[in-house]
Protein 1
Amino acid sequence: MNDELTAVDIKKMQEEVEYRRLTLRPQLIEDVKVAREFGDLSENFEYKAAKREKNRNDSRIRYLERMIKTAHVIEDNSAADEIGLFDKVTIYIEEDEEEQEIRIVTTLRQNALKGLISKESPVGKAVMGHKEGDRVLVEVNEAYSYYIQIRKVEKGADDDSLPISSY
């Protein structure tokens, strides 16, 4: 399955790969070399930590490159009065009697704690394409669902301000 990403997502990933390859990787290789000189490798914590960081960096580079290679580039084609990608939406969760402001984003930029909700999540799927004033059913799984009301919609745009997630 291909990940649905925007052109900005791909650009941000390419920038991160470039930074990790050209700046961070040489520094981490040097850290490994320095730590290796501290002596017995079996009891050398600095060496193990430096190797682990180098391996994490290499793993992240491979992950990002795979994401870029398999990505399906998408754009927001929602109508002016419909909820689409990067829109800010104020929802009212009926069963909790609570109002929340969320922003619909790609999976790569989701962060529920900051109100950045993936378009692939149950809430994201439920609100996409709907309009202000609609009452929609959020299906979490076969056994649990709940209703929300869409109270306010502010059209948004894809920009560089939203970071990509670390994994």
Note: The mean pLDDT is 92.
Protein 2
Amino acid sequence: MDMRGYQRYREEAVHTMTPGELLVLLYDELVKRLTLAQLELEKEHYPTFEAAVERSLAIVHYLEDTLDRQYPIGQDLARLYEYFCYELSRVKIGRNAEELERVKEMSAELRDSFRQADKNITAGQEAGVAP
């Protein structure tokens, strides 16, 4: 299989996504990495666990860096992302499965909310309603 063609396809797909779709994609990756961290923690594969937590932290930092803080929701999300970073740091140091589950559940709920919001915006645009 030609991997260059596949890589080009993936890059083009990302470039044609709406901001809402990109946000959901980031949250999908965050939840995926947190799930991987859980599985690796259960297996006591600590290097892979730590790498998954680090990648999760990087995603949360990116989400935080791209926030528009001029709106109250941006400020609220910034505080939530700070909480995620704090908890994930504790998870990594203490290998705390309970806190990891809590952050994963909250991330999945946020992802689902953003996914629904993106669907509502898309449906409104298709119906000719301004966002």
Note: The radius of gyration is 17 Å.
Protein 3
Amino acid sequence: MTNREKYKQAFAPLHAADALSLEESRIRQARRRASMQRTAAACLCGILILGGAGAAYASDLGGIQTRLTAWIRGEEISGIVAVEDGDGLYTYMWDDGEGMEEQLTAFGYGKDADGNEAALSAAEVLEGASIGVETDGDGAVWLYYYEYRVDITEYMTDGACQVALETDDGTVYFDVEDSGGGDYSLGTSTEAPDSAEEYIVIEDK
């Protein structure tokens, strides 16, 4: 079993953001769109965020290291060290600003121009961590979309909700569903669906 197969099996309960159709017009969004479209084609990305003193340090890991900047839980993080472990698998580490090191392990792969399976780059895989849903220690459900961080707990009904987030670049539509065990499936689109009027409009607070 390859490393990718092992991690795919380990992260089987996790769901990265899918059904992405990003069409932002600004230059900074154009770069984001190109990466997200490829990430959306992945089958799929698995993401696990760890924290605390037990996290490994970059100097202790092998592989090719790259430094990146990304949005994590609504916060822009720079100086993220990405270590390639092979087969589209990466370990990311950064300082949380309070003397603790955060660690994220993720993998992703998709199709190249010829339709062949290909591992995503470290930046493309990390892009998947910019969009997501998770429950915090108090049981609140949070939606993350790049720099936006919104508490959607009150909108969850029977473990699901449909919300529309007003961003500087237009409205983004989300279909959120609790998959159990702290995992959420998430569908995202910048194109208004036929049932757009049924989505609850929310704003970053």
Note: Confidence is low (pLDDT under 50) at residues 6-59.
